């Protein structure tokens, strides 16, 4: 925006020459300027230009004059100016402090006119007045918080955001956690008590079992325990001892490990900790193929717009399921030794307490390896680091 500023006697004259590259609103721009003089006693004198139609590079060539000082009556010799003018005038004389020139897009019948930008020229005292260039280009700036209109908002009155909502507001809930890590020797007694749980008879008297009983969040307990026992190479016997006790209390083989007990959570964590590379080697190629091809697999009629597409979707689904099943069944030799040992122990425990049921020795293993390892990874590949691509529900649901 090109503005010329000049002073004659005790008056300041501002000439709006032109603007370039104003913002468009809905493809249109009908700009006009508002010039506001602010005085030290809070008095304001407002004038405006005519609207320039359909242009982002308007030429104004309009001149406005303001008194540098006003008397108690608020007299201003610029009242004879033909430009539209109004004043807000409290009692008492004052000096001119600042001139604000703002631009708006005229949108009659559409509510408030759209703000395009503003500049603020400080002119209080000789030093600031002499610093103003007689003719200069100014970059339009965002509206300051003091000049933003008051609007109704959901923020309770009297709060910091209730007075300034032109850009919206963001509500955050922050949770701060402080973890204190002590020297390793501090944990020696706890470490020894936990390690002794493997040999503790009965297992219900062990520290590990007691932790599982008193903890509401079994996952938070299982994660550090699995890491501890994996580090000391005793994770398999620890899970075997807990699983043997849990299975011994059951009368129905179909309910084995169906609850969220400590041993089931430790199994989940052990599979993720020791089997993540195995999981990636088994499923990542087919998951990458699914993302690359982006074939729809939705077969629910209520979720398919074109019912005729269900047959093709079913073919895609069967093709992918076949490839996944083949990849899993051929991966047995790649399964980590520690997981093979854990699954062997679970199978022996199930067969020990349900010798007449020939299927339980297989279902107890498949319940973990399929339902709690491979299946969650297929449905949520990002959670298992199988992909970084956004998951489309019709692909994996």
Automatic annotation (TrEMBL):
Residue intervals of the C2 domain: 1-138
SMART domains, per database record: C2, RasGAP
GO molecular function, one term: GTPase activator activity
Domain annotation Ras-GAP: ranges: 217-397
InterPro entries xrefs: C2_dom (IPR000008), C2_domain_sf (IPR035892), Ras_GTPase (IPR039360), RasGAP_CS (IPR023152), RasGAP_dom (IPR001936), Rho_GTPase_activation_prot (IPR008936)
Presence of the UniProt keyword ATP-binding in the record: no
Natural source organism: Anopheles maculatus
Domain of life (superkingdom): Eukaryota
Cross-referenced PANTHER family: GTPASE-ACTIVATING PROTEIN, RAS GTPASE-ACTIVATING PROTEINS
Keyword ATP-binding: no
UniProt name for this protein: Ras-GAP domain-containing protein
Keyword terms of this UniProt record: GTPase activation
